[in-house]
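Quick one - first record:
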Amino acid sequence: MKKAIQFSFITLFAICSSVVSAQSMDEDQFYSENEPKVRPFRIGGKLGFPNLIGGNVEYVTPLLGDKLAVSADYSTISTDWIVPEEEEGYESSGDKLDFSYIEGGLNYYLFRPGSGLYVGASYGNIKIEGQMVRYSTESDRTEPGTGDIDFANGSFNLKLGAKLGGLFYFRPEVGYRFSALPESYDMEVVFDDGYTETQSYTFDTESSPQNLLYKGLIANIGLGFAF
């Protein structure tokens, strides 16, 4: 299953790149004499892994013939946004998880200034915070405890991507995180009487597509505009 999902992302990337690249090869004829060919500022959104869903900004510097760019990604997701506790008919378990991802790095465009195929190197940090309630214990306590999660995972990343288009662009990316997420996390559970113990919280590493977060795979699709 894992290999099939990875193959699907790579195949999608290859198809999109070949189709749009064929169109973008002739885009020079659409530029007027007064219009710059490189729009250095880019802003857009990304959907995929490890970003899940978030924003992206990029600036193409004049270095190396307008081929070196700096890039930053940011995502944040809270369980409160997905199912509000006050929704009628919904009984909250009380569990809360907040996910955030921040990444910064460099992209080098291989063939054309600020456009087309590029390789990227970056550093990204995944942070998960939350509170898990109603945790039982193996001791003789009858009341459940509350576990606090404060987990972070930083990783160096390598990526291959393509910025395809002019004013409006499409951006597929694939790559690898060298520090994948662990499958479990040791958290401290606190009980009402003040007793604490360490328990292991296991992340959902089986359900698709979020299981890709635990395999180190980078695969996302971005849309945006440049100016």
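second record:
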Amino acid sequence: MTRTLLIALALAASPLAALAAPAVGDIVGTTPEAATAALKEKGCEVKSFEAEDGKIEAKCADAEGKVSEVYIDPASGAITKIGGEEG
């Protein structure tokens, strides 16, 4: 019974975890401090920042260790693109 309850709770929480992920259009800020805090709230721990093609690229990892490249517009602080790589 307990195992069934735990499985049901895990399945019910799965969509909520997906909602916490960063998405294109989210405003995360224009400074490293603001972007780091905003991405952390969305479950993405920032590992590094670098400039790439006029955007800010933040490499971050989720709780499962999947690394994502989050591209941020430096003028608006909006996420413009998200790419992933296995980490």
